[in-house]
Amino acid sequence: MITIYIAGIFECQNGAITKYYPGAGGSSAIRRENYASDNGIFYILGDHLGSTSTIIQQNMTVVKQEYYYPFGGNRGSAFSELTTRRFTGQYHEAGLPGGEGLSYYNARWYDAYLFQ
Is the pLDDT of residue 19 over 70? Predict the structure, then answer.
């Protein structure tokens, strides 16, 4: 499986495309195309750290709310597959080894599960 990332605003994985449109105050919008489900426009609302905290559909219904431990571990149900942005807005790869996968912080990969 090949995944292409461009500047944090474009992801392409096996023909499925996610485009990120940054907004003010840690919020952003994403547009998903060519996925088996969940295509369309979604809004991501961030918390005070820029983490993905709430995902809303275009019709303003809440799809998912994310909760984090102080160092970024998952504090609740499984993360949404709609976006790869997690704690502090960093890219998260669930398929890598680690408690819940690893997050990429531009200089290193980080396993938040170790600090729970």
Answer: yes
Query: CA-CA distance, 7 to 24, in Å (whole number)?
Result: 18
CB atoms within 10 A of CB 64: 19
DSSP helix, strand, coil percent of the chain (3-state; round to 5): 10, 40, 50
- Give CA–CA dist 50/45, Å, rounded: 8
Compute the radius of gyration of the chain from its Cα atoms. 14
Q: 45 near 37, Cβ under 8 Å?
A: no
DSSP state letter for 68: B
Domain residue ranges of the chain, discontinuous segments joined by +: 3-115
Neighbour count for residue 30 (Cβ, 10 Å)? 19
> Comparing 10 with 8, which gets the higher pLDDT?
10
Bin 99: left if φ > 0, else alpha if -120 < ψ < 50, else beta: alpha
- The pLDDT of residue 116 is 66
Using a cut of 0.85, tell me whether the model's pTM lies above it.
Answer: no
Classify residue 73 by burial, with Cβ atoms within 10 Å: 0-12, 13-18, 19+. Answer: middle
